[in-house]
Amino acid sequence: LEARLQLAGAAGRAALLSGPAERTVRLLGAAPAGAAGGTSSDFADLHALYWCLLNLAQVRPLALVVDDAQWCDEPSLRLLAHLLPRLEGLAVLVVVATRPHAGADVPLDALGALVQDPGTTVLCPAPFDLDASTALVRALAPGADDVFCGACFTVTGGNPLLLTHVLQAARGPPCSARRPSTWTPARPW
Fold it and tell me: Quick one: 182 exposed, middle or buried, by C-beta within 10 A (0-12, 13-18, 19+)?
């Protein structure tokens, strides 16, 4: 929001922060505490952010994208929970990406409530199969042979993110250029 408000200019910022969205100024640190809306109130703060997003969506359709929600802080999850029942009929799309909860610091009940809400559409993409993995490898590394494509699939399990990382690493400098000069392999390559 901060970057969008900065880009809006004075007149645009005034429109985006009009009405209940006014206290967003204080939330974003652009005004001293107590200014633009008085003392802090969780509901009032969340509702101000909602109105700021609503004002943005009236300018043009809005997509709010949250990646790695398993590491999201509680205030951000509260905002998402506040938005969820208020989005119907608005030109706002909220996309939240998360991974399985293992090792996450986020309260599972807060994230679980978002996932289980009837207004939420949950998509669980499966890993690529060998054919899809091969297509991605060849799109990013034209000329890759079947053995290389199969090895990429094997080491990544068809995870598209891991596939792209493996291909980036394969395009990097040779392994010997990244190793300390004192390193010697346990066996010859």
Answer: exposed
User: Alpha helices, DSSP H only, in the chain?
Assistant: 2-7, 9-16, 24-27, 42-59, 74-83, 108-116, 130-140, 146-156, 160-171, 175-178
Which residues have CB under 8 Å from 69's CB, separation 6+?
A: 77, 80, 96, 97, 98, 106, 111, 114
CA distance 117 to 115: 6
Would the CA dihedral through 94, 88, 60, 83 be positive or negative? negative
Burial class (CB in 10 A: 0-12, 13-18, 19+), 111: buried
Question: What's the whole-model pTM score?
Answer: 0.65
The pLDDT value recorded for residue 32 is 42
Q: What is the pLDDT of residues 159-170, one digit of tens each?
A: 998 999 999 888
In terms of Cα–Cα distance, which of 26, 21, 87, 84 is closest to 55?
A: 21
